[in-house]
Amino acid sequence: MARGLGPPGRPQPAPAMPKRGKRLKFRAHDACSGRVTVADYANSDPAVVKSGRVKKAVANAVQQEVKSLCGLEASRVPAEEALCGAGEPCGSGDELDAQEEGPNERTLSRKKKSKRHKETPEGAVGEEYPMDIWLLLAAYIRPEDIVKFSLICKNAWTVTCTAAFWTRLYRRHYTLDAYLPLRLRPESMEKLRCLRACVIRSLYHMYEPFAARISKNPAIPEITPSILKNSKCLLFWCRKIAGNRQEPMWEFNFKFKKQSPRLKNKCVGGLQPPIQYEDVHTNPDQDCCLLQVTTLNFIFIPIVMGMIFTLFTINVSTDMRHHRVRLVFQDSPIQNGRKLGSEQGVQVVLDPVHSVRLFDWWHPQYPFSLRA
């Protein structure tokens, strides 16, 4: 009778089989001690190894071992960044590890991640460069890109407020053959007062892209100048001019002050230039424009200075060869959506009209004071 290992008559328990899909426990020091398991290979059972990438613990251990063999210090770069540099997605392994970890290990990893996020300062969005760097970059900015350059940051905007910026911009585009008024010549540009306005005016004489804009502007009879609505008439004058006709013509000029964009948008506050550069940005003609109407004969016009310009219409004259212009002025601005009666306000009718032109304050034909 064969002897068994257990007592007779008692059934022997079957040997315990490992559960399929159970994760093999890995220790970091095993990678350096020469113990290699099936889980370290790519063609291992996917039920045993759920992740197809090298474990971070294995990568760190191997990295430290290589550094120690080479006589170097352990690298401070984590294995996650090394794997990311090789083209591996960084988030996939972390998600799989979080699914395979126990509840205690999962809470510890969450605490570490929260501490890592807290260490990152909230205000560290970018770097702040000194003013001298922005002043050097401003020397390569085109005149039409000044607004874009000033919107980069506050230091870039501050550079565009300096007298050095506008002086260098003037010298960069000045040519000896340029025909400039007396106030816009180099000997007059040494004054700091109204420097910015004078440089902008001179660019429309010297800078070709700006001069081309003026020549491409459409004639006013084709469009209605709605930008003049609710503008204040600051000044009015008329003069006799010589034209192509044998008889002289009359030129009627209306100087308007446009409604400020800040008041239109109900925005009181805004960026103001530094105090030391207030003279540079001073411009008595800011938001001003000139409406110039030329007629074939003299027409009596009532006094409209100080009144608000509310309506502008232009149509064909009775002789079908010229234009007829009608201007309406009110004592107060017209609110949006309010309709104006046909007989309200002071009306100015100019007929027959030879030409109608509108000049902004920077236009070469806009009359400005030499004391500006």
Automatic annotation (TrEMBL):
Annotated InterPro entries: F-box-like_dom_sf, TMEM183
Chain spans, region Disordered: 1-23, 92-123
Protein name as it appears in the record: Transmembrane protein 183A
Membrane topology according to the record: Single-pass membrane protein
Gene Ontology CC: one annotated term: SCF ubiquitin ligase complex
Organism of origin: Ornithorhynchus anatinus
Family affiliation: Belongs to the TMEM183 family.
Record localization: Membrane
Biased composition (Basic residues): 109-118
Keyword annotations from UniProtKB, A to Z: Membrane, Transmembrane, Transmembrane helix
Transmembrane segments: 296-316
